[in-house]
Amino acid sequence: MPTIEDVAKLAGVSIATVSRVINGSGYVSERTRYKVWKAIEELGYKPEISAKILASKGKLFNVSIFASKRILSPLQNNGIIGEFYGVVIRAIEESCEKLGMKVDVKLLEDFSNSDNSDGYIFVGGDVSKEIVKETKSRKKPFVLVDHYIPGERVDCVISDGYDGALYATNYLISKGFTKIVHIHGPLWPYGFKMRYDGYKDAMEKAGLMPKFYECDDTEDGAKKVVDIMLNSYGVPEGIFTSNDSIAFWVINRLKEHGLKIPEDVSVIGFDDIVDAENFDPPLTTLRVFKYEMGCLACKRLHELLTKVNPHPVRILVFTQFVKRKSTK
């Protein structure tokens, strides 16, 4: 069974630092905290419940995870959205358990009727400014996951979609492509907007004209956009999509038009959900570290509950480019 000494050795820090991270006591840099929790996950180490938590209010903390019907319904039906957020929510649940926090998953739509938790974690981009304001009025700590609201100084954990989109687009440009299209979902989720901006900036910096097509993030919507693109723009050399599901639908429609992937068109997705590796062809994509995001959100809420580092932070988790066979 792994020990705290094993965690310290793998993370490259002292045992005292590991203890501070687990118990939420004293200042530890974000980078070091991430290394410690990553080592804990890799080793399967189960830390003892913090005495500071047990002493707080004479009970364990109760944490509510809120997500919208858009997210929770696919979780129950094994939908594509569920493949992404299912990992995030599982990470939060497992991390909270290790810290001795009781977790309940609830519908975001029922948030106004719920006020019996010590803290909240909101998952996904459906959280409005109104909900953020209501949460602040309750004077309870909370963290957003996979969402950020500009102008609202609140704690959040998000993937760096801008950097990932920049890298993906530059990869296509490096292949000598000049006709590169971005097919994206609605831009109100902050993550999609970051990817949009990353693509746009990469194209403009290269002296190329950006070309955007927006769909409603459904299979029918994506296929209609492909038809419109082929009729009005022609066949692009490369396509970058705002998530893997759109990439799947786009590729299938391109095939129906007789186009070959990647011989005729290279396609890059975003997220690296489970099906990406087994798709035909296997999808080149940006891997989002979903489990790590959930863990970081839980750890950040734990810090807020134990009054450690109370100043709001925005944690950006870099993506990783995964080259497969949908690109040249």
> What composes the largest sheet?
6 strands, parallel
CATH topology of the largest domain: Rossmann fold
Number of domains: 3
Distance between the termini: 45 Å
Mean pLDDT: 89
CATH top level of the largest domain is Alpha Beta
What's the CATH H-level homologous superfamily of the largest domain? Answer: Response regulator
| Structure summary, number of beta strands | 12
Low-pLDDT segments: 53-59
Q: What oligomeric assembly is this protein in?
A: single chain
Total helical segments: 13
Order of SSEs: HHHHEHHEEHEEHEHEHEHEHEHEE
Overall form:
globular
Radius of gyration: 21 Å
Percent range for β-strand residues: 15-25%
- CATH 2nd-level architecture of the largest domain: 3-Layer(aba) Sandwich
Verbal overview:
By secondary structure, this protein is an alpha/beta fold. The chain has three domains: 48 residues, lambda repressor-like DNA-binding domains (434 Repressor (Amino-terminal Domain)), CATH 1.10.260.40; 135 residues, Response regulator (Rossmann fold, 3-Layer(aba) Sandwich); 127 residues, 3-Layer(aba) Sandwich (Rossmann fold). 46% of the residues lie in helices and 16% in strands. It contains 13 helices and twelve strands. Helix 11 links the parallel strand 8 and strand 9. Helix 1 packs across helix 2 and helix 8 packs parallel to helix 9. The longest helix has 19 residues. It is globular, with a radius of gyration of 21 Å. About 2% of the residues have low confidence.
